[in-house]
Write a structure and sequence with these properties.
This protein is α+β, with helices and mostly antiparallel strands. Helices cover about 30% and strands about 25% of the residues. The longest helix has 16 residues. Bound molecules: flavin-adenine dinucleotide (FAD).
Length: about 400
């Protein structure tokens, strides 16, 4: 399909006004052109009608039809977890102006890594599996850059009661947060930036922090755990259409405690250095040294079960740590030198749905994250891609 040159009046508008005007007027054309001419051309739509060359177009006037490929929107993404990062990369590649804000001090959201006592500990997600083609393609990039590597295959348990399912489990080579850091290269990310209020007026969003910092955009992507996104919209007085609101309100998460323990000596956890306990108190235990991310021995992560976390969520750190240490004594094998406790209020979705992402076009807002696409790292990643398709 070929496109004719746009009308002169429109050309003048596009050049005289900023890119947002162009996006609003010609979203279909932009999409078709994007599909036709590929994802790597990120120039703004200013180019000679005679010599339309993707590399020349930054300085020439007037724009030709080809140059309308990069009719961009401004998009604010709340959350630098995996879904926000995968969406941001795709949207930025399409030519949109993307800004990410995250309340955390580090990139990666629930793919989190912490250092203390000389050890390195993954305290959120521990590994990931790959089942879809889209994620397989991404894995190959990560592997080639040595961002990730295989840790083990199958499903280790203390008594080997579950057979090997033959799926490799991958981990970040420097910890799970390394994946987020890799993805965030070239993205505009504001960390330690918690959005406290949102407003939607005249077709655009404004997001404000408690300290008054403000971000404006045409479109908004919300990737925080869904109850947090809904609470933010509610305190901001933004109402969603009934069906979208009900779908989102139906999603629930379970909490989890992560106890990070630096032992005096190596742990007694057998190779591959981790297993699913799946008991009443403990869900998972892993040795970050055997995992290859901690350079000193005896750096252990213990995850409680959801049931235990619900029962003890408001107990003191000392009480929770002592119960978790007691329940894992046999695998620790030596005395704890030091520990830290992390409470994950929204650790994993209990009843995820598989819709990819939820778009509310009348508000220019989209919701993405693991709860909308299967409760795992892979689901979060592909949810971000879906959201980028819907918003882009
Ligand atoms: C303890 C634990 C163990 C897990 N184990 C595994 C595992 O082994 N394998 C696996 O596949 N998955 C695992 N998961 C799940 C996996 O981590 C998630 O599915 C995935 O990381 C979710 O990514 P996301 O982008 O949807 O959300 P998140 O990573 O939660 O990203 C959302 C981001 O939004 C930010 N945010 C929230 N509110 C605001 C605000 N108001 N302003 C600014 N920023 C805000 C948060 O700081 C966060 O960074 C585990 C999770 C936990 C907690």
């Amino acid at each position: 399909m070929r496109f004719n040159s746009p009308p002169a009046k429109a050309v003048a508008n596009w050049v005289n006004n900023d890119v947002r005007v162009r996006q609003r007027r010609h979203p279909e054309l932009a999409k078709d052109l994007y599909n036709q001419f590929g994802k790597s051309h990120r120039q703004r739509p200013i180019i000679s009608t005679e010599n339309c060359s993707k590399t020349l177009c930054a300085s020439q006037f007037p724009p030709c039809s080809l140059c309308l490929i990069f009719i961009m929107a401004t998009i604010l993404i709340l959350g630098a977890g995996l879904s926000g990062l995968s969406a941001a990369r795709q949207l930025q590649e399409q030519g949109h102006e993307v800004t990410i804000v995250d309340k955390g001090r580090g990139i990666g959201g629930r793919m989190a890594t912490r250092r203390f006592e000389g050890g390195i500990f993954d305290h959120g997600a521990q590994f990931f599996t790959v089942r879809s083609e889209a994620f397989q393609a991404e894995l190959e990039k990560w592997e080639s850059q040595k961002v990730v590597g295989e840790w083990f295959q199958g499903f280790p348990t203390p008594d080997n009661r579950k057979p090997d399912d033959h799926y490799p489990r991958f981990r970040g080579t420097t910890g799970m947060t390394g994946i987020g850091k890799y993805l965030a290269q070239d993205l505009n990310v504001h960390l330690s930036t918690e959005i406290a209020a949102l407003s939607y007026e005249n077709g655009g969003w404004t997001a404000k922090t408690a300290s008054g910092e403000s971000f404006s955009s045409e479109k908004l992507l919300l990737t925080a755990p869904v109850p947090q996104s809904l609470a933010l919209l509610a305190t901001s007085g933004v109402s969603l259409p009934t069906q979208a609101r009900e779908t989102l309100q139906s999603l629930h998460y379970e909490p989890c405690f992560a106890l990070l323990v630096q032992l005096e000596k190596p742990s007694a956890i057998p190779a591959p250095g981790a297993f699913f306990v799946e008991g009443e108190t403990i869900y998972w235990i892993a040795d970050n040294s055997q995992k290859g991310i901690s350079s000193i021995a005896g750096s252990v992560t213990i995850h409680s079960s959801g049931t235990f976390a619900k029962q003890h969520y408001n107990d003191s750190e000392a009480t929770v740590a002592s119960l978790l240490l007691d329940a894992t004594k046999q695998w620790l094998g030596s005395e704890p030198k030091s520990w830290q406790l992390r409470r994950w209020r929204y650790s994993k979705p209990e009843n995820p749905i598989n819709i990819g992402a939820l778009h509310v076009p009348e508000l220019n807002v989209c919701f993405a994250g693991d709860a909308l696409n299967g409760a795992k790292i892979e689901g979060a990643f592909t949810s971000g891609l879906k959201a980028a398709d819907l918003l882009g």
